Amino acid sequence: MLIFAGLYAAIGSRLVWLGNQRPAKRVQSVVPPSVARPDIVDRSGLTLAMDLPSVSVYAEPRRMLDLDEAAEGLVEIFPDMDMLELRKRLDSDAAITWIKRVATAAEKDQIMALGIPGVGFREETRRLYTNGPTGAHMLGAVNVDNFGIAGIEKWIDAQGLNDLKASGLKFRRDDLAPVALSMDLRVQYALTDELRKAVTRFNAIAGAGLVLDVSNGEVIALVSLPDFDPNFAVDALKADRINRINVGYLRKPRPISPRNPVVSGSHASASGSIASATSLSASSPS
Prior knowledge:
It is built from nine helices and eleven strands. It has helices spanning 2-19, 67-77, 83-90, 105-114, 136-139, 151-166, 185-201, 244-247, 261-267; strands at 40-41, 47-59, 97-103, 119-129, 141-142, 148-150, 179-180, 207-212, 219-225, 249-251, 279-281. Strands 1, 2, 3, 4 and 7 form a five-stranded mixed beta sheet that branches. The chain has a two-stranded antiparallel ribbon with strand order 5-6. A hairpin with a 5-residue loop joins strand 5 (141-142) and strand 6. The termini are far apart.
């Protein structure tokens, strides 16, 4: 009897101790959804970049019940995933782990049909560049969280969009005025097409072209080849995808007679021509 009394006393004291503990503060495990960005349009109002609704898939490892079943089900839907690597991420103490950023509606429906505990969805937005690589070096790109990382997209963030996000205000794409560029999409298409033909014809490794309005300095079209598709921004990291208009470096293949006296004074030989080995920087007007 004394043993049972001691046991009940221990259980009772444990319950009292637990009852006096403060509940653990609930931590929001999923970061807030990526917020909207303004549309980007050309000088005629034609859409160059816009937001589309999207969804990302995440898992909360601490809530997973059957890791093998979860991993097998997810790999069936996303066959490019590595089963062992996915299971290792699911078998962790992390609050969340991303399964797929920017999933399709069909993939979401398939996951919901599986009913895997601990797997959820984050409604967000993704950026669509409606003309693919056309104008890519002017537009720049965004990362997976819809933050500008280059070009006009990065400039937009610095003009107040980041501050708006930091304020915590809820806003949608329709709440933001479109950003109108000086670019003319038709001229951009034409310049890109002609430059591609020239690069192919002369078997060149790259090419660049610029159309300016000489009356006010507006950039009507800017092309640098090879270009990239901002819908797949990782391609912009390739070494040959630089913007040759402002960071290029030219190497003249044969002697030429410079028309610019500034160039003649700084780069030309005594005869007034540039040697075949002379390199000229295109990073500044001079």
